[in-house]
Specification:
This protein is of the alpha/beta class and 364 residues long. It has 13 helices and 13 strands. β5, α7 and β6 form a beta-alpha-beta unit.
Length: 364
């Protein structure tokens, strides 16, 4: 599914390259031979995966830049002349969005539009994948999954900002891609919706896996805020493979008249059996790193969705994409990464590469 020949020497602009998903994707792209220019914020945790992997040395360009500032983005785009753009930069945390709602909206909506505006002057074909989240849907606490044509919405500032970003991206594409004098014929733009990814190297605040690992390493009970909340857990490599495949298809189907079947939105989620309560995730993790957990449910905590599940038929039928690792493998791989790196920090890159190799082999 991932075409090595397509990615070799391909000029790629990756935003959010210093983040958790961005670091994994930057490593994978450089392993494929792509020439990667990154735009991201300085690392803000210790440890941090981007630093653990020493990714600066692997990149063609490394820019610490806030996407809320348009002019520097325009300069970077003109310098690197990307053929593929993977836009991951975001404020990605629900609880932080309650503390900084305006910053969340500015980054996730206006920042995304800044990326598209910076790309408009390009004069060669460019495939653009704008990554949002599985939380863009108006959550009705359904037992069944959301499809790409379901209503968008969001209760918390993070979810609402990402839903708004989807609307803004679609509006920008409809308004400014085409043959008219105010349009560009060179951009093929799609959006990708995924979330609740886990995997080695996530050190963010207020996420269950990093919280669990920090507690286990300190020989403390894992604090669990919402043990019954159900999420579509997937290894980080699953949606990243979808982003790469979508970018390939966008690029290969590009037509100057704008006719491209992939310039739309796609869900990337796990198989049904991976939709599990947080409690099950923690108990599965404890099979690989023994410890205990404690229920810290708080009725006064900020609102978060209770149930969330995506339908992924569209990605399967139109892209040929499907998840490869079941829930048990996803958790086992994730915990094993942290356990190995906890004992030998220098093994971080070897662990990541081993996961990428094994995941890629699952395609064959």
């Amino acid at each position: 599914m991932i075409d090595v020949d397509f990615w070799k020497d391909r000029r790629v602009l990756l935003t959010g390259h210093t983040g958790f998903k961005g670091s994994w994707l930057a490593l994978w792209l450089t392993q494929l031979g792509a020439k990667v220019t990154g735009i991201g914020l300085p690392t803000d945790t210790d440890p941090h995966l981007f630093d653990q992997l020493a990714l600066v040395s692997r990149l063609k360009g490394h820019h610490l830049q806030d996407i809320r500032d348009l002019a520097p983005l325009q300069k970077i785009v003109q310098e690197c002349q990307p053929e593929v753009v993977l836009h991951l930069a975001a404020q990605p945390l629900v609880r932080r969005s309650y503390r900084d709602p305006l910053g969340t909206w500015a980054t996730n909506v206006q920042g995304s539009l800044h990326i598209l505006e910076a790309l408009r002057p390009l004069e060669h074909p460019c495939a653009v994948v704008m990554i949002t989240t599985d939380k863009v849907y108006e959550n009705r606490e359904w037992d069944f999954g959301y499809r790409e044509n379901d209503r968008l919405g969001g209760h918390d500032p993070y979810s609402a900002s990402k839903a708004a970003a989807e609307i803004a991206i679609a509006s920008w594409r409809d308004s400014f891609c085409g043959q008219a004098s105010h349009q560009t014929p060179w951009l093929a733009i799609a959006s990708a919706r995924a979330g609740n990814v886990i995997g080695g190297g996530d050190w963010a605040e207020d996420r269950i896996v990093p919280d669990a690992i920090r507690s286990l390493a300190a020989h403390q009970a894992i604090p669990v805020r919402r043990p019954e909340a159900t999420r579509p857990w997937q290894h980080v490599l699953e949606p990243l493979s979808g982003y790469l495949l979508l970018a390939q298809r966008l690029a290969m189907a590009h037509q100057a008249d704008g006719v491209n079947p992939y310039t739309t939105c796609f869900n990337f989620g796990p198989s049904l059996e991976a939709n599990q309560p947080v409690r099950e995730l923690v108990q599965e993790a404890l099979k690989h790193w023994p410890g205990e957990w404690v229920d810290l449910s708080d009725a006064n905590a900020p609102h978060e969705a209770g149930r969330l599940h995506l339908q992924i038929d569209k990605a399967h039928h139109q892209l040929g994409w499907k998840p490869r690792w079941p829930f048990s493998t996803t958790v086992q791989r994730t915990v094993r990464w942290y356990h190995h790196v906890h004992n030998s920090p220098e093994q971080a890159i070897d662990c990541c590469i081993a996961d990428i190799v094994d995941y890629t082999q699952a395609f064959s």
